[in-house]
Amino acid sequence: MPSRVALDHASELAEKLGATLDMLHVWQAPTFVPLGSGPVGGVGEAGMTEMVRKNAQEALDGFVDEARKRGVSVRSARCLGGPPAWSIVDAAKEGNYDLIVIGTHGRTGVPRMLLGSVAENVVRHAHCPVLTVRSAQR
After folding, report:
1. Could you tell me how many helices (H) and strands (E) the chain has, helices first?
2. 96 Cβ contact list (under 8 Å, min separation 6)
3. How far apart are CA 12 and CA 102, in angstroms?
4. Residue 43 has what pLDDT?
5. Which helix (H) or strand (E) element contains residue 130?
């Protein structure tokens, strides 16, 4: 999971530099459920969106716990819904952050064209330096 690898690098940097982390997890409402369609597997649009939001919050809570167990200071942790790249860029600008650490899937070719690259858009539009971290899996 790219965000886990990013957390490991951000935590290591924070430990070495005595820095504080502000953690952000951005989730996007599922787009695979056609508007006005009936329930999918007994879960309607609102239920599916709530399930994604809840899973994102649980993942963020786990990341915060992990960082704190390592002794890293976590100043804030926010879970936001919206377009990931733009939400990250906007939050970093509002918080006047020194560095963004973001995981990337390392997709190339057609998958990247179809799915886009959150990390690439963050790198292109962020006001501060961005450290992209790709997991060793391929």
Report:
1. 5, 4
2. none
3. 14
4. 54
5. strand 130-134
122 in Cβ contact with 89 (< 8 Å): yes
Please tell me the CATH code under which domain 2-134 is placed: 3.40.50.620
Instruction: Name the nearest CA neighbour of 32 among 41, 21, 19, 22.
Output: 41
Amino acid at 33: V
In this structure, the number of other CB atoms found within 10 A of the CB of residue 103 comes to: 21
8 Å CB contact between 102 and 134: no
Structure tokens at 6: 């990013």
Give the pLDDT band of residue 9 (cuts 50, 70, 90).
very high
Tokens at residue 46, please?
């609102």
Q: With pLDDT > 90 as the criterion, what percentage of the chain qualifies? A: 59
Closest C-alpha to 68, from 9, 1, 11: 11
- The full set of domain ranges for the chain reads 2-134
Look up tokens 């963004």; give the residue: 100
Name, in order, each residue with C-beta under 8 angstroms of 101's C-beta and a sequence gap of 6 or more.
6, 9, 10, 13, 130, 131, 133
Q: 103 near 1, Cβ under 8 Å?
A: yes
